[in-house]
Write a structure and sequence with these properties.
By secondary structure, the chain is an alpha/beta fold. The protein has one domain (4-211): Alpha/Beta hydrolase fold, catalytic domain (Rossmann fold, 3-Layer(aba) Sandwich), CATH 3.40.50. The protein has helices at residues 41-52, 65-74, 81-98, 111-123, 163-172, 194-211, and strands at residues 4-10, 13-20, 26-31, 56-60, 103-109, 127-133, 151-156, 177-182. It has an 8-stranded mixed β-sheet with strand order 1-2-4-3-5-6-7-8, with helices on both faces.
């Protein structure tokens, strides 16, 4: 099945997304960072790499269009990790209702990484792997100790403020875990070749932990 636009019904709201089920039976669900959307060029780039490796992807907006407009003025939702995680969990259950045999992974960026980790803790064995790119996994709080999915934290070597926050979260994780620092990369991995490194690391992590399941 090729990539298609989907509407994910979550109780009182609908969230828009792009779903490509791929061919392998593995699906990586993306959780974008604050102020971003399913159209994030960085997440879209990583998603293309995963699809080229045969995996499926789901990129969707964590906020409605109305909430996005309000967020530009108030910024009251971007750090609401419980809300974002709840929506990620509900999107996961929606896609599993559609395709029960999928093996699920989460790819989170910035605050979306915290939401992905909280969601992984809540869905338990339904999540087979987590990757964080330039994330704030520390914002997952006490959920970190509850994550069972193998987790990879990827941080830019020049992202000085975020490295210790990832190290703190890494120390609290009790699952299989790894932390990779990409030399010469800033928070958004805009430097030449750095985002490609992220995509390759993520593809290998998901392939090993989801494809081997």
């Amino acid at each position: 099945m090729r990539k298609r636009e989907v509407t994910i019904p979550l109780r009182e709201i609908n969230l828009e997304g792009e779903l490509d089920l791929g061919e392998s039976g593995s699906l990586v669900i993306f959780a974008h960072g604050s102020g971003s959307s399913r159209h994030s060029p960085r997440n879209q780039f990583v998603a293309r790499t995963l699809r080229e490796a045969g995996m499926g992807t789901l990129l969707f907006d964590l906020l409605t269009a109305e909430e996005e407009v309000a967020e530009e003025r108030t910024a009251h939702l971007r750090f609401n990790i419980p809300l974002l995680a709840e929506r990620l969990v509900r999107a996961t259950r929606w896609v599993l209702d559609e395709e029960r045999e999928l093996r699920i992974g989460y790819f989170g960026a910035s605050t979306g990484a915290a939401a992905a980790l909280v969601a992984a803790a809540q869905v338990g064995d339904a999540a087979g792997a987590v990757v964080s790119r330039g994330g704030r996994p520390d914002l997952a709080g006490d959920a970190l100790e509850q994550v069972t999915a193998p987790t990879l934290l990827i941080v830019g070597g020049d992202d000085r403020a975020v490295i210790p926050l990832n190290e703190e979260a890494y120390g609290r994780l009790r699952c299989e875990k790894e932390m990779r620092i990409v030399s010469g990369a800033s928070h958004l991995f805009e430097e030449s070749g750095t985002l490609e490194t992220v995509a390759v690391l993520a593809a290998k992590w998901f392939a090993f932990h989801l494809e081997q399941a």
